[in-house]
Specification:
This protein has about 625 residues and is of the alpha/beta class. It contains 22 helices and nine strands. It folds into two domains: about 270 residues, 3-Layer(aba) Sandwich (Rossmann fold), CATH 3.40.50.300; about 180 residues, Four Helix Bundle (Hemerythrin (Met), subunit A), CATH 1.20.120. The chain is elongated. About 5% of the residues have low confidence.
Length: about 625
């Protein structure tokens, strides 16, 4: 009566959770499960044989290369013979077979797993073989058998540890840790990979232990050892011997379990163990009890996990670009991307926030330092001597002791030629590169979901930058030609500057005549120094050695160059901003709309795959949520 009630109440829940686990295999949702782990040759397969009543593959070396999920169901169909079903994850249907056929079917399916491993270039795969066992004596349990861990093969060891981490993590997982009775539990490699809080240790091979003197006492001490902090007390079980398996000695499972208990109870040490620690029957009873508790108590938690995962995936999906299959969809996406690009430039204040203007200013200032000539260039002994020669050659051409203005023009033009010998192209190349970096950054943000269109826009903008660069270079050449041909000495600013400098230097000369030691160290202190003129005894001495005409010509040339620098560099900076920055704030979206069409928009393979995966996961989660909501 109680058994029928259990089957009616718990089995439907178990079936639903098995279905949910299958659906959510590729998620991190913590579904209730019982997992068997153990080192290779620990006797794990024999334990599962005893629980399930079927014979799993055994042998030397690595036999199991994937998880095997065993769904045990008590059923009267087909009488005592029972039947089984088998499939590999991905198969549309289960294949039904008898228990006698099942062993061979498992071998065939293992061969398919080997093929999958070879294709994946792995030793272990996470593809699942599912076996459903229907029998009168089968408990309603679901167990997952993982490959035995070995430390001989490093690659296999890492793959199995990854599998263990995937399957044994979570509060809703109960772990059967199978250990040979000959060994200490903490020497097991599997012991080091699992959560001990949810672990049931199982000591196997007691038939061998009982045949060896002193080993039963050692095993008893292992079972009661308080230092092993596992969630459940260890259980000792007897494996079928190789002869018993070969000769199929025990066709009746009840007879074998009776023999197992007799062997344990007849030993003076193992007999002292609590009944809950003795044999397969105790293990099955414990598993049924734990499974029932897990199934009932985990429903709410699993439902919350599913809801959180759905919310997370919905957000990820929202951030993906919309589908671009139809022309209408492409037009909408194209407009949205263009608007985003324009907003990125305008709303982030392209000039200020990302510092383009300040970066241009820094590059411009470096160029300005190379371009600039301070007064020391003109107050140089060699240059003043050169000016004297030019002045001497021009005195008296009109009136005696007056020099011709042409000598000033020739000296200025010579300086202008020297200015324009500097390579401005390097500075303009730096501006082009700066704009390229910043524009590409925003193009990639706005159009990153559509790489073909994005790359085409980047290429077009790079071409436009080259055109704008040529405009700036042409401006530079035009201005340089104009400045060299026309010397604007009637500029009022120039005349005022020349008069002011002449007045300052004359006053300095006069002040120096009244100093007690005729020192020149007060040079430049009678008025604020102008344009690079500093206190300099050498400069003062230099001018004292030449005529006033020479001094006036030097000052005239310097002042003209100073005004020219300010005028030309200001033009150059303003044109740089206009040609590069202003153009690409005003023109980019119009340029994109003129040069490109929405039919260039189509999803990348990466986006298609990501969208399909999210949709697949969402469908699985929603299906699982529907199933779990139907659990009472």
């Amino acid at each position: 009566m109680l058994e029928a009630k259990y089957r009616n109440n718990i089995r439907p829940i178990l079936d639903k959770f098995d279905k949910i686990r299958e659906i959510l295999k590729d998620t991190k949702i913590d579904i209730p499960k019982i997992v068997a782990v153990g080192d290779q040759s620990s006797g794990k397969s024999s334990v599962l044989d005893s629980i399930s009543g079927i014979s799993l593959p055994k042998g030397e070396g690595r036999v199991t290369r994937c998880p095997i999920e065993i769904q045990l169901r008590k059923e009267d169909k087909n009488g005592k013979k029972g039947y089984a079903k088998i499939q590999i994850e991905g198969d549309e249907n289960f294949k039904e077979c008898t228990f006698e056929e099942l062993k061979n079917e498992i071998k065939l399916y293992q061969a398919r797993i080997m093929e999958i491993c070879n294709n994946e270039k792995k030793i272990i795969t996470d593809k699942v073989i599912r076996i459903q066992v229907f029998n009168q004596r089968a408990p309603d349990l679901t167990l997952i058998d993982l490959p035995g861990l070995t430390y001989i093969d490093g690659k296999a060891e890492e793959e199995i540890k990854t599998l263990y981490k995937k399957y044994t993590t979570g509060l809703n997982t109960i772990i059967l840790l199978v250990v040979s009775g000959h060994n200490e539990i903490d020497s097991s490699e599997s012991y080091k990979c699992i959560n001990l809080k949810n672990t049931i240790p199982i000591y196997t091979k007691i038939d061998q232990i009982l045949s060896l003197s002193g080993e039963a006492e050692k095993l008893y001490n292992k079972v009661i050892n308080p230092e092993i902090k596992t969630g459940y007390r260890p259980i000792v079980v007897r494996n079928r011997s190789e002869e018993e398996i070969k000769e199929n000695t025990f066709t009746d499972e009840e007879a074998f379990r009776k023999l197992e208990l007799e062997a344990i109870n007849n030993n003076e040490f193992l007999n002292k163990l609590d009944e809950s620690c003795k044999g397969i029957h105790a293990l099955v009873s414990l598993l049924i009890k734990i499974q029932k508790k897990l199934l009932i108590e985990s429903r709410k938690g699993v439902l919350e996990q599913i809801k959180k995962e759905i919310d997370k995936l919905e957000k990820e999906k929202a951030f993906l670009p919309p589908s671009s299959k139809t022309l209408d969809e492409k037009n909408v996406i194209f407009d949205r991307c263009c608007a985003m690009f324009q907003d990125l430039i305008e709303n982030t204040k392209f000039l200020e926030n990302i510092g383009v203007k300040s970066q241009i200013r820094k590059k411009f200032n470096r160029f300005k330092e190379e371009f600039h000539k301070d007064f020391s260039t003109f107050a140089d002994k060699k240059y003043v001597k050169k000016v004297k020669t030019v002045v001497d050659n021009n005195i008296g051409l009109k009136l005696e002791n007056f020099f011709d203005d042409k000598c000033v023009y020739s000296l200025i033009q010579e300086q202008l030629s020297d200015y324009f010998s500097l390579n401005c192209k390097e500075f303009i190349d730096e501006l082009e590169n700066l704009m390229d970096i910043n524009l590409c950054k925003y193009i990639k943000i706005a159009f990153e979901a559509y790489p073909v269109l994005m790359e085409a826009i980047i290429i077009e903008f790079e071409n436009q930058l080259k055109i704008q660069k040529e405009k700036l270079l042409n401006f530079y050449e035009t201005i340089s030609d104009l400045e060299r041909v026309h010397v604007f000495t009637m500029n009022p600013r120039y005349i005022d500057l020349v008069n002011e400098m002449n007045s300052q230097i004359t006053n300095t000369f006069q002040n120096s005549l009244f100093s007690t030691n005729n020192s020149t160290k007060n040079f430049g202190q009678s008025a604020k120094p102008l344009f690079g003129i500093v206190n300099s005894n050498d400069s003062m001495s230099l001018f004292q050695n030449y005529s006033e005409n020479v001094r006036k010509v030097v000052i005239s040339v310097y002042c003209y160059c100073n005004i020219f620098e300010n005028r030309f560099l200001d033009y150059l900076f303003q044109c740089s901003i206009k040609v590069f920055v202003d153009y690409f704030i005003r023109e980019p979206t119009r340029l994109i709309r003129v040069r490109f069409k929405p039919d260039m928009i189509f999803d990348s393979i990466e986006i298609i795959q990501k969208r399909d995966l999210i949709i697949k996961q969402l469908n699985a989660l929603q299906e699982a949520r529907k199933i779990i909501n139907n659990i009472i």
